[in-house]
Amino acid sequence: MSEQRWMNRSERWFGMLLRFYPVDFREEMGEALVETYRDRARAALRRGGATSLAGVWLRALADSMRNGLGERMRPAISWRRSGNWGRDAERAVRRLRRAPLFALSMIGTLTVGLGAFAVVYAVVDKVLIEPMPYQRPDDLYFVWRNYGWFDLKRGWLGGTDVAALQEAGGPIQDAAALRRVRMTLAGAASAAAGGDPEEVAVMATSPNIFPLLGVRPALGRGFTPEEVGPGRPAVLVLTHELWQRRFGGDRSVVGREVRLNGTPYTVIGVLEPDFHFARHSSLGAPQTAEAYITLEVDLPKTNPGAGSYAGLVRARPGTTPQALAAAVTAVGTMLDRRDFEGRGLRLDTVGLKADLVTAVRPALVVLGAAGVLLVLVLAINMASLLMVRAAQRDHEFAIVRALGANQVALVRATLLEAGILGALGGACGALVAVWGTRALVALAPTDLPRRESVAVDWQVAAVVIGVGALLGLLAGAVPAAWATRTELSALLRNASVRGGGGRGTLRRAMVVAQVALSLVLLTAGGLVARSFQRLLRASPGFDPSGVLTLRVPAVAARYPNDTTVVALHQRLERELAMLPGVEGVGAASALPLTANANQTGMGFPGAPGNTGDREHDNPLVDYIGATPGYLDALGIRVLQGRGFSRDLSHAALREVLIDRQIAAEFFATGSPLGYRLPVGDDTLTVVGVVEHARMYDVHQDGRPQLYFRDEYDPDRAVSFAVRTSRPPAALVPEVREAVRRVDPQLAVAEVRTMDEVVNERLRQPRVSAVLLAGFSLGALLLAAMGLYGVVAGSVNRRRHEIAVRLALGADHGRVLRLILAEGAVLVVLGLLVGLPGIYLSGKALAGVLVGVSPFDPVTLGAVAAGLALVALAACYVPARRVSVIDPARAFREE
Amino acid sequence: MGMDRERPIESYLPLRPVEFHILLSLAAGERHGYGIIQDAEARGETSVPDVGTLYRALRRMEDQGLIGASERRQAPDAGDERRNYYRITPFGLGVARAEARRMEALMRAARLGGLLEARAR
């Protein structure tokens, strides 16, 4: 046999041996492999003839079996090696880098969506979910008096109640009384902070407050059990904030003496920076304090009739809320018998946290749900973007599969790409949310519970990044599943009809889901916005524009009696009135919308509106001390009769004003003017009926109101209202200077315009409205993008069909309508699918809406119409492309 | 392909014997597969790599960017057979040098530790 024949046979043999190798290796390396075997075979043949050649053949067989199998087990191209996620991730990143526009648009969408989600999540987590920073926070409860004989279900406790709770034992481990007072802090401040007197909120408590909460001062000590009651040592514990602000964080402050309302107190401790205890309030928002002192009274010896304290109770470990409530109720029953002749006093218990978040829970739940919906819309959007990308890559997929890549590898590659995108988007979202939460906290009501702790921390960021990655994986699963089905034959078949087939149905379904979810979000956004608009338009019963307010507490040490206090108020009013541009000045014990008024049960014996029902005839009213100028300064209208006289005669001091509510309830028939109202031992005369200046909410009336002359029973810390023709904020320096002229030792507190007070009350609804509006617009945009994509794809896919139609004589308008109808069907389907969602969201929204029904037909109709309009526009823009289809050209391109 | 150059050189070490032989051969100039085998034989190597082993390594190393396919063709007088030639990349050269240094350090350690006799001077 000639050398050439041997070589030909060898080549066939080596070619057969290649079968041992996997197909991709064979295709890539086969030729070179055979070439080298041939070199080897030729050398062997020349060296040792056929025998040597046989050795080469056998060796090649063994070699191919071993390495062919090895290559199948562990491919040289290691990304096909199962389990090599790191390599796959590297490849996915590289692929994304090659498509920066796609990656950027994806990450951008995710950043916005997940950023919004992160902000809401951070707030919900910190306010509703995270435990409070106390020892066993779930064992802490507030206790309130529920008076059976008049409408006060959440009244302060008497000192005697707290004393009884402290002695009760059983499930009640300990109890403390808390009272918040405003005091003027002066003297002994560090030189750096200046020594100006300032008003600070001080918590007067039982000495066990810190052990009860389970916190210890960071510096110095807390109170000892003996440091309470009449003649107790005057000792003071500072919060971290006050220590920093007033004493510059000076550690030697412990042991130093300061003055509170003129009385010397010794600083004994400074609390931790994260101590933000808020005492819950009988009415209005929980309140914090800047310093802690102990009660100067002996709780068991206080007057049981007076409710003055918040009662904080710690349950023994392992006590259920029910068991604790039962124990507290039992104490209440005992107190009712002992102190109230069984008139029906009850003690109610409410968990510290539950109580804290009651007011904001509905809004937060709605926001949280909206955040989740937005993320869902986002997921669908991401899935359809990935599908488009998958469609662009179907060529690649099909070839790679034909070359022998296994399905697992393809799925993994697709999932990894989506997961990486999701995680990146989540990271960007978390970053955006860091600023977002700061902005939100700045916008949020100052009484938002745990406001100070709302921030994006690592835990929140981790959750958001995780949600992003999960979203990516979920969204990636759709195109991944599809990629595994792509066959080369299908690709060839569909070469001109890309993006067709079953995937079209899937994308349509996703668009329907997007429209449905957007409808729900938009409805919620629309309703909340409308509710907010109602709030803005609500008339609070006074005119807040052009009014500056400030509070000036009069310290007892300098103004020891009513006469001096009244004189001070008059001098301050005179001084303020002389400022340029000031049109009116008045003072009152409580400004509107501050929830700061005192309450008392008040009867109107002999008035025509009495029914004989004890609860009705003895309503709890807000009673407000006011100077004669107050009504004008705040723009509170006099409806009947007149305002207060300006003199200080015996009769003038005994004038009272009633509000619209009392007039309607008790004097619906007959005039209240001249009615003589018995108050204590005295008798006051009603001289006028005034508008109800809302005390609690902007949008609804609060308790009935009764005004008496400030000079009759002066309040030590009245607020002044200054009406001015100039911008009120510009008046601040002059106002401070005016107060200083009267007495340089006076503290000036809460200087703000009345508009600011109103805005403060509107903060929460404003934040909700802004966030929800943002969410729903985002969802709308995403849905529009989805629709656009589907219709654009459809136009592309049906290019040929459209060209045929046009060639056969259909005009462009008709074809356009055909395409639009396709989109319209999706929109209508989406709206229908969304309807049950509207019902559910309406139920959730009921708690946060003001003056608008959750199923308000106007809003719902407007939202549906708006959504349909935007959706159709999203269809129209790509559909218009049919008009540029020229049949002749379309056919040429085939 | 050769897209893994972001990986540090150290992550490729130690090389397999077949990989080192390939780099060693290609460092001297471009070779086809059989040329690499002949080089290994010429070095008196006891374990000359099998052809399959060689090509799996070549493919892997090409993917890692250590070597590349060369466009060079055999001179016309050597017959009409088309041949696949390989060349070393600068990165591959770096890896080969690092591997050589690694082995040298090991040798030195072995000598100091008495496993090998000190080189005769």
Verbal overview:
- The complex is a heterodimer of chains A (894) and B (121).
- Chain A folds into four domains: 3-76, no CATH class; 149-344, no CATH class; 361-537 and 761-893, no CATH class; 553-747, no CATH class.
- Helix content of chain A is 52%, strand content 15%.
- In chain A, helix 5 (159-168) crosses helix 8.
- Chain A is elongated.
- With 121 residues, chain B is mainly alpha-helical.
- Chain B has a domain at 13-95: Winged helix-like DNA-binding domain superfamily/Winged helix DNA-binding domain (Arc Repressor Mutant, subunit A, Orthogonal Bundle), CATH 1.10.10.
- Chain B has four helices and three strands, in the order H-E-H-H-E-E-H.
- Chain B has helices at 17-27, 33-42, 51-64, 90-112, and strands at residues 31-32, 67-70, 85-88.
- Chain B has a three-stranded antiparallel sheet.
- Chain B is globular, with a radius of gyration of 16 Å.
- The interface between A and B is medium-sized, with 27 and 24 residues.
What key phrases describe this protein's structure?
heterodimer, A: 894 residues, alpha+beta, 7-stranded mixed beta sheet, 6-stranded mixed barrel, B: 121 residues, mainly alpha, Arc Repressor Mutant, subunit A, 3-stranded antiparallel beta sheet, 3 strands, 48% helix, globular, disordered N terminus
CATH superfamily of one domain in chain B: Winged helix-like DNA-binding domain superfamily/Winged helix DNA-binding domain
Which outline of chain A best applies?
A: elongated
Query: Mind summarizing the main beta sheet of chain A?
Result: 7 strands, mixed
Any idea of the CATH class of one domain in chain B?
A: Mainly Alpha
The structure class of chain B reads: mainly alpha
Output the number of helix runs of chain B: 4
Individual helix count of chain A: 26
Kindly name the structural category of chain A.
Answer: alpha+beta
Distance between the termini of chain B: 46 Å
Uncertain regions spanning at least 5 consecutive residues of chain A = 79-83, 189-193, 495-502
Order of helices and strands of chain B: HEHHEEH
Just name the CATH architecture of one domain in chain B.
Orthogonal Bundle
